[in-house]
Design brief:
It is a single chain. The protein is mainly alpha-helical. The chain contains five helices and four strands, in the order ββββααααα. The protein has helices at 34-41, 53-58, 68-75, 83-129, 137-169, and strands spanning 4-5, 12-13, 19-22, 28-31. The relative contact order is 0.06. The mean pLDDT is 81.
């Protein structure tokens, strides 16, 4: 079974699905759904329409080149059935899918790291611009610590005075 690709969104078109547009020069365009066909007739550029794979690849949001895509193309070729070959192919397909998932995850993490760096630079810039709005946290804590220490010292002194007064009164009791 041959699986075609949509000319506009690069989605899969299975046998007896989608629609076909043939130009006068016999160029064939296949579309997976009417949404793609309408956008094609409106002469929209797939690289500028946000929901297409062409846009995602052009914007750097999707892993652009991968050797595992070639394996998918080889799967569509009919081959004489052999049990060992069939089992090997299934195992290989699973392994290729794992590799593809890992590569895509790594690609996404690299993209996110760049965004984190940009966000950090923007945050630093914003803090530098509005530094006058930020109170130094240690300045407040130092004042609070000083107040607490003064209070503790006063309590200790008061306790000593009370205990001295109490000791002075004991002989009279």
């Amino acid at each position: 079974m041959h699986i075609d690709r949509c000319y506009f969104c690069s989605g899969p078109i299975y046998l007896d699905h989608g629609m076909m547009f043939i130009c006068n020069d016999y160029k064939v365009f296949r579309f997976c759904k009417s949404k793609c066909h309408k956008n094609f007739k409106k002469k929209h550029n797939p690289r500028k329409v946000r929901w297409t794979n062409a846009f995602r690849k052009a914007a750097g949001k999707e892993y652009p080149v991968d050797n595992s895509f070639e394996f998918e193309n080889h799967r569509n070729e009919p081959v004489k059935y052999q049990r060992k070959l069939w089992n090997k192919t299934i195992d290989t397909m699973k392994r290729v899918e794992e590799i593809k998932q890992k590569r895509q995850a790594k690609f996404i993490m690299n993209r996110l790291e760049k965004n984190k760096e940009l966000q950090k630079v923007q945050d630093i810039k914003e803090v530098k611009q509005n530094i006058h709005l930020i109170r130094a946290p240690f300045a407040c804590q130092e004042k609070q610590l000083e107040n607490k220490m003064v209070q503790k010292l006063q309590q200790d002194v008061d306790m000593e005075v009370v205990s001295e007064n109490h000791n002075c009164l004991e002989p009279f009791l």
